[in-house]
Amino acid sequence: GVRPRRRRLGRVRRLGLLLRRSWRQNVRDTWANGLRLSISGGLALIFGEIFGRLGAPTAASLSERIALLSYASINMAMMSLMKTLDLLGRERPVVRHEAARGHYAPAEYVLSKLLAELPLDAAFAAGFGALLHWRVGLRLPPRVLVGTLALSAACSAGLGLAVGAMARTPESSLALGIPVMVVYMILGIINPAGTTGAKPPSLGVRLVSYASPIRWSVRALVTSELRGMELEQTSLKDAPRIGGLALVRSGDEVLDRLGLQDETSASCCVKLGRILAAELGVAAVALWLRAPRHA
């Protein structure tokens, strides 16, 4: 007789099985998770040793605050990107084979990885952000620092999924992913010279800059740190004499010089959420297009 066809599992059931498999993989990889946690904490302490306690807002500390928040965003972004590129590189052959046989859709795999990896990425970002806030004495609320870094880490992981899904081999995903993040870093950091008299960027540069998770993470943190800040009057004599921070008297004036007067941490985080959704869509489509077709 003819062997009956195996009944295909429902979408929710498939997603649940994928999520459970991904979560079990994360739980079993205790050595790598412990190493990531140690590195995150160690980097926060290193930043603390370099920048010290910032203390009361002073004119001389403005550039240090901006630099510290920029380094924190870049740190979380690079760690999440590298981890995801490595993970997808190891899993991609299995994923393509299983998706081609109809076990699940590429979008279901991407969603399950997001749900499984996001808590870990958020936990590492939370540990790094909380320790950094305590060690350095930043002015912005801890929830803004931790939440923004966690969302930035998720966006960088989404970028890793998208790049890894488009690349043909694990080596090519690294070769593509690292330069992309470097470009995002260059376009995402804040120019301390300010925006006055700056040459408007081209349309292509603006589009790439908009897709940079580092850009919006840095802006969210800097605006939250500087908005409403009143500098100590006795420190104004130490304010820079040239550049975008020259002779400033308040944090709001700094934001105006940097062209961030209309930005808020909430609006920047909304943009991070849009970038994450776009990256996951690209990853799902790329996995579907590159999946081998079995007759």
Question: Summed up, what is this model?
Answer:
Helix content is 71%, strand content 0%. It has helices spanning 11-28, 30-51, 62-100, 106-136, 142-166, 170-188, 203-210, 213-226, 251-257, 265-290.
Uncertain spans: none
- The level of helicity is over 70%
* CA(first)-CA(last) distance: 22 Å
- General form: elongated
Mean pLDDT: 82
Report the biggest beta sheet as strand number plus sense, adding barrel if it closes: none
Provide the structure class: mainly alpha
Query: How would you spell out the order of helices and strands?
Result: HHHHHHHHHH
What fraction of the residues are assigned to beta strands by DSSP? under 5%
- What does the radius of gyration come to? 22 Å
Number of helices: 10
Number of strands: 0
Describe the structure.
With 295 residues, the protein is mainly α. It contains ten helices and no strands. It has helices spanning 11-28, 30-51, 62-100, 106-136, 142-166, 170-188, 203-210, 213-226, 251-257, 265-290. Helix 2 (30-51) runs parallel beside helix 4. It is elongated and about 70 Å long. The mean pLDDT is 82.
